[in-house]
Write a structure and sequence with these properties.
- This protein is an alpha/beta fold.
- It is 44% helix and 14% strand.
- The protein contains 13 helices and twelve strands.
- It starts with a helix and ends in an 11-residue tail after the last helix.
Length: 377
């Protein structure tokens, strides 16, 4: 049984975050764009930032994942509401395209760059160009690696994302009291995304004692990040790997109790594989991002939970940080120790994630205005 203590704690935090759309101290394409209200932070930024004719370049990795469409749309709305001109570009998950787009933003007169990188170490030339032009750079959600030209990092607490997932599994199975053993598999994210390791390690660190004691059994034997990573977070890649694991380890009727997936696009691949290749008891499945299809699967009992990172919250914080940068003010950060990009430790602002499941998705996702009920039908 799911422990009430965790539900109460996370739900309370989630409701507060959803209602205030403020940061804590700390593969599914979609043409159905989520309508968002402009958060209070954008109004604050508009009041305090002398935006004038300032131009902000926003580089997103792809439109192929729902969350990046929402991130881009939310930031564009917030920046424009604050009086900035916005150059928003999507790079179709192609590194050279993103590199060219960022270079064009620099030559096109952008005063600040906000970059969610396809690969954290892939934009060195553009970052050098930005530094030479004295253009501040905010790494958005994914840390830009191997460069001293990164001014700030704005993200969610990525290690906490993993701990939320791991704790959900621990409490749902009541691992401290249940006899077990339980069977578990892992599907992690893109090795080119610096966040993916934080997600995986946060979850694995919670569950490691139970794996070592034998209460959790990784039947496939695949326990390391390199073994369970999913390039490009691709649903099809996650599905293919899951199908291989099922045919090799579970075709004899062995039940799988948990499949810990780092995000929703990989969870969707696992869910597709289970639907086609598995007849045992349905496992706990974790995710992240609360994508529409995955939220529908939560409602239908095909996915247990998804970590919710409200993109409106992060967008509002980035707009605020840009205003502070351009006004020469002290920029809000709440972590100056964690995120080293192999050259410098980047001052960071970490927003706090919460989780949604079938019990609280209405409060977290609908009542907050993130989705409408019709979108989840």
């Amino acid at each position: 049984m799911f422990k009430r203590k965790l539900v109460a704690l996370m739900l309370g935090t989630a409701l507060a975050a959803s209602m205030l759309t403020g940061c804590g101290s700390g593969s599914t394409s979609s043409s159905d764009q989520t309508e968002t209200t402009e958060a209070a932070a954008s109004s604050d930024s508009a009041d305090t930032a002398d935006s004038g004719d300032k131009k902000v370049g926003v580089s997103m990795p792809t439109k192929d994942l729902q969350r990046w469409n929402q991130d881009g749309d939310n930031m564009k709305k917030e920046f424009e509401a604050a009086g900035y001109e916005v150059d928003l570009q999507y790079a179709s998950n192609d590194v050279q395209t993103q590199l060219s787009q960022v270079e064009n933003m620099i030559s096109g007169g952008c005063d600040v760059l906000v970059i969610a990188a396809i690969e954290g170490s892939s934009l060195g030339e553009a970052l050098d160009m930005a530094k030479e032009s004295n253009i501040p750079v905010i790494a958005y959600d994914r840390l830009l690696m191997d460069s001293d030209a990164v001014s700030y990092y704005a993200t969610f607490d990525n290690y906490m994302v993993g701990t939320v997932q791991g704790t959900y599994v621990k409490d749902t199975l009541d691992l401290d009291n249940a006899e077990g053993p339980f069977n578990i598999e892992f599907t992690a994210g893109d090795p080119g995304d610096n966040n993916a390791g934080f997600f995986f390690n946060g979850a694995y660190d919670v569950l490691k004692p139970y794996i070592e004691s034998g209460k959790l059994n990784v039947v496939s034997g695949q326990k390391t990040f390199d073994e369970v990573a999913t390039p490009a977070w691709a649903t099809e890649t996650a599905q293919s790997r899951a199908e291989n694991i099922l045919s090799s380890n579970y075709a004899d009727g062995t039940n799988i109790d948990v499949w810990l997936c780092s995000n929703d696009s990989t969870a969707l691949g696992v869910e597709n594989a289970l639907a086609a290749n598995y007849n045992g008891n349905y496992p706990i499945i974790t995710g992240q991002d609360c994508d529409i299809e995955n939220t529908k699967n939560m409602i239908a009992g095909k996915q247990s939970m998804s970590v919710f990172k409200d993109t409106r919250t992060l967008a509002s914080q980035v707009v605020k940080m840009v205003g502070q940068i351009l006004n020469g003010e002290t920029v809000d950060v709440n972590d100056t120790d964690t995120y080293n990009n192999n050259v410098i430790t980047v001052p960071s602002y970490l927003c706090e994630p919460v989780f949604a499941d079938a019990n609280n998705y209405k409060e977290i996702l609908i009542d907050s205005g993130y989705y409408t009920e019709d979108q989840l039908k």
